[in-house]
Amino acid sequence: MDLGSILYLGVTFGLFVIFAWIVIKTYSRKNRDRNEEAKYRMLDDD
Amino acid sequence: MDTPQYNTDIVRSFILWSVIWGLVAIVVGLVVSVQMTNPELNFPPYFTFGRLRPLHTNAGIYGWAVGVIFATFYYIVQRLCKVRIWSDKLATFQLWFFNATIIAAAISLLLGFNTSKEYHELEWPVDIMVVVLWVAFAINIIMTIIKRQEEQMYISLWYMMAAIIGVAILYLVNAAEVPVSLFKSYSIYAGTNDANVQWWFGHNAVAMVLTAPPLAMFYYFLPKTTGVPIYSHKISIISFWSLIFMYLWTGTHHLLWTPVPDWIQTLAMAFSLMLIAPSWGSVINGYLSMKGQWHQMRDNYLVKFLIIGITFYGLQTLQGPMQAIRSFSAFIHYTDWVPAHIHMGTMGWVSMIAFASIYYLVPRIYGKELYSIQLANLHFWLILIGQLIWSISLWIAGVLQAGMWNAMNPDGSLTYTFMETMVEMYPYWWARTIGGVIFLAGVLVFVFNLIKTIRGGESLVSSAVPVEGRA
Amino acid sequence: MWEKRPILFLILATAAIMTGTTITMIVPFLSVNTEADRIESVKPYTPLQQEGRDVYIREGCNNCHTQTVRPLVSEVLRYGEYSKSGEFVYDRPFLWGSKRTGPDLARLGGKYPDAWHYKHMASPRTMIPGSNMPDYGWLSKNPLDPDLARRKMKVLDFPYTEKQIADLATKNEMDAIVAYLQKLGNDIPWRKAAQTTIVGDLKNPFIGNKDAIEAGEHLYENSCAPCHGEDRQGEIGPELTDIDMDDADLYEIIHNGISDGGMPAFGSLGSEKVWQLVNYLKEKDDD
Q1: ipTM above 0.90, yes or no
Q2: Domain B213-471: CATH class, spelled out
Q3: pLDDT above 90 covers what percent of chain C?
Q4: How many Å apart are CA C149 and CA C164, to the nearest integer?
Q5: Cβ of B171 under 8 Å from any chain C Cβ?
Q6: Do residues C33 and C85 make contact, with C-beta atoms less than 8 angstroms apart?
Q7: Could you give all domains of chain C from N- to C-terminal order, each with its CATH number?
Q8: SS3 content of chain A, % helix, strand, coil (to 5)
Q9: CB contact under 8 A, B419 and C128
């Protein structure tokens, strides 16, 4: 494997890790309910 | 009713002006449509197709869409943050500078001051006006968000902030040009580089002006209208990050088979297909929010606009990736299929959501009952039918012309000359004009309804809560 | 985390936006328009050509005409050699366009004689029946501005002579746009390279065939009459009433054109149609 391929795979893998991290964080037990609060609160903002 | 601390005057003014510029965009669109079938209706030097078509697209994007964005964002940001906008004065300046910019744009385009870059035709002095306008808007929205009284930011604010930052980056990079005179400049990029920068801009202008802001409106006005929250805030978060990350890779799908390096084209193609996921994340989130509420499609005219709008967004984001595939692009690109695709997005998705937002806002900010829900329904059907005629006739035209361009005789020669394929387009161009006329009729019904509401509609009872938007 | 901190959110959103931007928009600058895709024979625009290009931009010609030939069979047959990156290094801005209401113009240069363009720009439908292009005859009333042209050449850093600038005073915008159109795609010698050599004996397959003559007449009206006249009396091209030439030689001229004489190649019509034209031109003689 040349340097280009390693770089290519590395960047791809890195991006995937970031994506997985966002998903895990968003759906973690700690954040699961807290992340939904905003959608209820926006209903009574008038 | 509004809590008195919110600034509603600015929302009223932006709605008024955006509707005016929207009408201009549609009327000019009809003119260029007729010019394609009747070339004798070109009146040089100012009123030829080549000068009017940029006016049509600029009035549509910068007058109508951006005008509605200003109006709705100022309404939404105050409520989601539970504070008045950061600066009333800056907003008022922005309103008048907005109109000055659109007028300067219209005049300069008719005079032929044109950079040729699609959706970025404005010459450098007007470019500077656009930048000032956007900075004023950005400061006001971001400062309002910073001093908000509500800790957690609702998804609409995310899309708003991404749009503000995205437009700023895109516009500045693509505007890099060297002036020769007050009315003429040259791009600092040349040839293939210029093409690649332009379509990085062109495609992502669609993302940051015609996708993210209408999504912000949709995520706000749908729950407000139905009275139930969106299905999942978490799905909207995942969709959001995926969307704004992936969009920026896809611009070169406008340049498949051109001299732009192949690897960029391949990336653009792959990311365009991947974009289906976050786009449909929003579509499905919208549909699932209707669980147990589908009867409102019948009872509540606003829901009809919003759900049909998001449906067209869904169709648009399937058709777009399809066109971004090399083999299909080879066949269909440069034909009338492409404007049909764009107009499903602008007339079916963006305008549907914009009309819904304005119908939601006007009774609330004027304290009046909507003059006629029947007229609103008529408006809905006219613009839906008009848009479908528009798009379907040109999809057929595009496939027909592409087929003729590629047809070959057994001896390996082409079956048709270019003109033999072009004259086949005339009936479809006529059908498109008819679709446009029906769409315009719908918008005139809308304007009439608004004027009647504002001038003399019945006052809203102040105790009426979110349900007042219902039929 | 970011859902409560707008500044952090803005930074992260910018980072997300800049990732794809960097890779697909900034990185290509390292390879595009460098020695790698350079073509020696491609020359910058002369002051007159550049003026023409600016008229093309001002009138929004790019709204209906593209300027890239894609490497696809039907496209190369219709327009000519596919476009190369190195051919566009002097194009600021690029003018590839996105819609072909009219045909692609990337290989237009040298296809027709100047006289054809003057006539076609002034009145497109007399040259191309059924065309929906607006008339641009009014361009010939607009003079050029030599001082502005000099400034443009300086900004673009293109070579020019004072004579070229001075000559602009005697020209108008129509001269400029025709000069520009004649340069398009003409910096590489593709037209000569694309010419097919006809091998073997050419035999007219339609001798004495009435239908072929009629079909040829129809083809003549659309493809030849604009230059050679409705009654073959000659206008831009020579008169064709009394052709003293072999069928095979006539076939070759129609098929390949005369690249230095302004006669376009009509080989893309296919051999059948070219033969129909030959028959029409020869048989009409015998009337």
Answers
A1: yes
A2: mainly alpha
A3: 68
A4: 10
A5: no
A6: yes
A7: 47-188 (1.10.760.10), 210-286 (1.10.760.10)
A8: 85, 0, 15
A9: yes
